Predict the structure of Polypeptide N-acetylgalactosaminyltransferase.
Amino acid sequence: MALLRRRNRFVVFGGLFLCFWMVWGLLQMFELQRDSIQKNRAADFGKDLRASPHYDAHYEKLLEEDERRFVPGLGDRGVSVELQGEEAREASRVMKKEAFNLILSQKIPYNRTLNDVRHSDCKSIEYPEDLPTVSVIIIFTDERWSTLIRTVHSVLNMSPSRYLKEVILVDDFSAHDELKGKLDYYIETRFPKIVKLFRLPKRSGLIRARLKGAEEATSDVLLFLDAHCEVTTDWLRPLLARIKEDESNVVVPIIDVIDDKTFQYQNNGGTFDFEVGGFTWNGHFNWIDVPDEVAKARKSLSEPTKTPTMAGGLFAISRNYFWKVGSYDKEMDIWGGENLEMSFRIWQCGGSMETIPCSRVGHIFRNFHPYKFPGEKDTHGINTARFVRVWWDDYQRLFFQTRPELAKVDIGDISERLALKKKLKCKPFSWYLKNVYKKFIPDEDVIGWGRVRTQEDVCLDNLQKDEESTQDLGLFPCNAELSRSQYFSMSKDGELRREFTCASVKSTSVPSVVEMVKCNGSPDQKWNLSQDGLLVHVSTDLCLDGHREADNLARVNHCHPSRDSQIWSLEHVDNP
Ligand code: UD2
Ligand code: MN
């Protein structure tokens, strides 16, 4: 009996030991894995620096004041934070100047945590060990201290040290005091060696600031970020892995929204679907749905997905390829357009551009620029006209038709960029439109386009409304020249449309307003232009009537071929 009990005890202890050992082993493995994904190099932060040769009591005092504002744990896991009372009122006053909630930002610790927001399929992807090294380049002009520093901490905290060789900060001639000596001091004492700061001797704009960063970088890959970002779990490896496969892959993370007011990390409302980059014929970037055929071919929402353009601020590119494919147009000034220029250039000159859904980075989208734009020039417009002239071939007509003012301004010399296009034997824009982004071309392969006019000289008009959401179709006296607001097309599929929206009728009652909704090929978006000029809505058999009422809205009504307000003509008819 006694022997049996002893043996039992032995078994129990042995078993317990085994369990303990296994749990410990698992924990160790987990620790190791965590360490290889995120090496907390901002850990030095807060260490007693008085023994350091760089120690400066003045700056330490300023830094302590910053830290005293922190509320430990505030905003952790990316949750939304609402300020209260007088503080909330002050925050909204400050927000009018800063374009984001600076007061709240100052209370959220630099090392706040974020959730792992990736699609679950991302977690089982295996990446090679020997990925390329990376230089993260963060450019800024008069960004605020707390957001800039949080960006740097976040990158250091969440990037494996074996890949992250350096963080390069480029100060585009900021005026704020806090970005001067205090910043040098902070970097020198907290992250010596790994973070490098370069200052431009005059305001140069974000394009030339990024060029400076690229010139100073020494790693295999350049990774650009805006100065108000936070990166998330395992954000780096998916980007580097794709570049390792092919150096001409230019890759973009999913850019999540960090709420400008509450600092909530918005996880697309919990869904994993994402949009890719497009553009408008008047030269702006926009977000578009992943084309149906691409979406259908994907096995998982975690797969790299080709994107026709990029938003511009957050992307990675092989350093070698960056220079080979023409870096940036250094004549572009201040802000805007460089993202589209690079997108067309990459695609047309043999590269590719992808959104990598397993890499997710948050960015504070601001409603206006909280920094000064020097001079009177419309730099965004000029930058845009520069890339349109270089990359859009004949299609530049579509740009200048609706932005004629830019046809006349001096956009500088583009001969170097045209020479580059020739040297790299880049494909024409028609190739891009056929193979990369099958976008509606308003004056090609259509029944007609231009002003759509009644016998009473009233024209269809978008009434300058924002076309991102559904709007009623408007009417207005025809302008003397074709302007953007009166530019409509009649497609061969019978759509009466603009670039992205189609005239649609949802009700059979008369008279009924006509809605401009996102084109989707459905029957309620089909029209027929009859021999005698009636615009018949196919599924209801009602006619478009341009009789102008006080609300300036177009309506459908019973067809009356004798009514001048129902007899329409298209300005340009391609296939009569
Ligand atoms: C978007 C891009 C931005 C850039 C821009 C088009 C994202 C998330 N952001 O606008 O990176 O491609 O479109 O040009 O895709 N800056 C300078 N010097 C200047 C102006 C700005 O260094 O003269 C810095 C600025 O401090 C910031 C970055 O450039 O870190 C981008 O500026 P932004 O945040 O105002 O641009 P954003 O996000 O509205
Ligand atoms: Mn930005």
Observations:
- Residues 2-37 form the longest helix (36 residues).
